[in-house]
Automatic annotation (TrEMBL):
Residues 60-91 have a biased composition (Polar residues). Residues 7-38 form a coiled coil. It comes from the Bacteria. Keywords: Coiled coil, Membrane, Transmembrane, Transmembrane helix. Residues 43-59, 93-265 have a biased composition (Basic and acidic residues). Residues 43-265, 282-302 are annotated as: Disordered. It comes from Bacillus wiedmannii. This is Uncharacterized protein. The chain crosses the membrane at residues 330-350.
Length: 533
């Protein structure tokens, strides 16, 4: 920025100097014009122009000094010429004035040149000084910046070291606190893990028992399904063999009919051959009956040819009649046999086509359902309940049998999809509750969304909604545990008489004994442990 300022100052000085020069040149030009426009000078020039050309040349040649160079000052030459030409005192005065003016102009020009030279030297000196000043300022600025940069770096380094030290101290403190917190968390985690391990072991044992039961049921169901599948395959194989046998019989019948048709065709060819032979014999007889001459065998021409012709015609007529009768006789037989064969073959093909199409469609659908169902049962048998549930999702639940539905519902339950099992079968809610009780995870009941009274009863018991529990007591299947929950709700509401009546109604002697042993003012926590005895 300092260098830019210096450059701007130098440019401003150069611009001012250029303006000053232009102003001086303009003033000099004005002075020069004023001199040459002087009336005396004009008069001298006029007189000079009025002289003859020869006189002017002679005067010039005479008055010119021999040793004067041709490249002298034109103004001085002009003045010298005027002095020589003017012989009067007035001309001398004018010449002197002119010389004086020329000398003054020369002095002015010399002084101007000297001033110009001095000014240029001053400008060069000023420029050099300005550049030197600018260089010194730039060096000083660079030195200042370097010092400033070094100072900043030192400050940054000091700050960094201080921050590094503070960070290390903070890290040490944080590490110490983290170690203390980690130790405390480890102790708490160890306690929690011990409790969790004990709870998980109980859950695993209960789940193992439930899964073992479900696995056994699934194995039985899979075995039953496999036997049913084998039986169906045997039926399909038997049906296929029967169809193959029927096809073979139809083929044999078709060949028999073709054989009969071949025999009929052969007989027809034989009849045609007989007709042709008869026609040939007729031609031969006619040729023999023609008279070889008018004089030989005249009687034979009258008798024998007539007899032979009659016999031949009769024979031919008999042959034609027999052939026609035979053709008529076999015509209907041929048509009937062909019709029967055509109907049998067409009907058999049509029935086979319909049966094959229907069987193929049913088999495809049943095989798809059976494949998904069997895969699901196999997966559930090896306790892969998640994968088994995915297979059962592809099966139409409504088309399954009772045992298949049961296997599907238990698989959904064991795979964590109890909600889906209840959605498929509302009566399965009791099995869901029993499973959650067995695995000691009855709080999972709260996640179920259903209007089933049993589920609502269990949720009300968990939420200590005693009035709701009493309201639903007649809508749920009772056991020792639920009876204890109902009695507990009565006691929570200070209704010991109703609790006693309910215990007498269900015939639970343990509940009656605990109700009688509890004091009237005791809290319900004294009988909160009532459960299935």
């Amino acid at each position: 920025m300092q260098n830019n300022r210096k450059r701007n100052v130098i440019k401003e000085r150069i611009r001012q100097e250029k303006e000053r020069r232009e102003r001086l040149l303009a003033e000099e030009e004005e002075q020069y014009e004023d001199i040459y426009k002087d009336p005396i000078s004009e008069q001298i020039q006029k007189e000079y122009l009025e002289q003859p050309q020869n006189q002017r040349e002679e005067s010039v040649n005479v008055n010119l000094p021999k040793n004067e160079s041709s490249n002298s000052n034109p103004a001085l030459d002009w003045i010298t010429t005027i002095q020589k030409q003017a012989g009067t005192s007035e001309n001398d005065l004018i010449i002197k004035e002119t010389e004086e003016e020329a000398r003054e102009r020369e002095e002015v020009e010399a002084s101007r040149k000297a001033e110009e030279e001095a000014r240029k030297r001053e400008e060069a000196e000023a420029r050099r000084k300005a550049e030197e000043e600018a260089r010194k300022q730039a060096e000083a600025e660079a030195r200042r910046k370097a010092e400033e940069e070094a100072r900043k770096q030192a400050e940054v380094e000091a700050r960094r070291k201080a921050e590094e030290e503070a960070r290390k101290q903070a890290e040490v403190e944080a590490r110490r606190r983290a170690e203390e917190e980690a130790k405390e968390r480890a102790e708490a985690e160890a306690r929690r893990r011990a409790e969790e391990e004990a709870r998980k072991q109980a859950e695993v044992e209960a789940r193992r028992r439930a899964e073992e039961e479900a696995r056994k049921q699934a194995e039985v169901e899979a075995r039953r399904r496999a036997e049913g599948e084998a039986r169906k395959q045997a039926e399909v194989e038997a049906r296929r063999k029967a169809e193959e046998e029927a096809r073979k019989q139809a083929e044999a019948q078709r060949k028999e009919e073709e054989k009969k048709l071949e025999e009929v065709r052969k007989r027809r060819l034989e009849e045609e051959k007989k007709i042709k032979d008869a026609q040939k014999r007729q031609k031969i007889v006619v040729a023999k009956s023609e008279p070889e001459s008018d004089e030989i065998n005249l009687n034979n021409e009258r008798n024998q040819p007539n007899e032979t012709k009659f016999e031949q015609e009769e024979k031919v007529a008999i042959d034609k009649k027999g052939i026609l009768n035979n053709m008529k006789k076999y015509k209907y037989a041929i048509i009937g046999v062909a019709s029967i064969v055509l109907l049998v073959v067409a009907g058999f093909a049509f029935s086979n086509m319909k049966n094959s199409q229907a069987a193929s469609a049913n088999n495809v659908n049943s095989l798809e359902v059976n494949a998904n169902l069997i895969n699901g049962l196999r997966l559930s048998a090896v306790q892969k309940y998640q994968d088994a549930a995915l297979e059962f999702d592809k099966v139409d639940y409504k088309k399954l049998g009772k045992e298949d539905k049961k296997a599907v519902l238990f698989t959904y339950l064991l795979s964590g999809k109890a909600q889906k099992a209840i959605d498929l079968e509302q009566d399965f809610a009791e099995s869901v509750v029993s499973y959650y009780i067995a695995v000691d995870n009855l709080k999972k009941v709260k996640e179920l969304k259903t209007k089933n009274p049993l589920i609502n009863f269990e949720i009300a018991a968990l939420d200590n909604k005693h009035e709701e529990v009493i309201k639903l007591r007649d809508q749920v299947p009772l056991d020792g545990r639920r009876e204890g929950i109902i009695v507990n709700s009565y006691l929570k509401l200070n209704k010991s008489e109703e609790a006693k009546k309910f215990a007498q109604k269900v015939g639970n002697k343990d509940l009656l004994e605990k109700i009688n042993n509890s004091t009237p003012n005791s809290s319900a926590t004294s009988v909160a442990t009532i459960s299935a005895g």
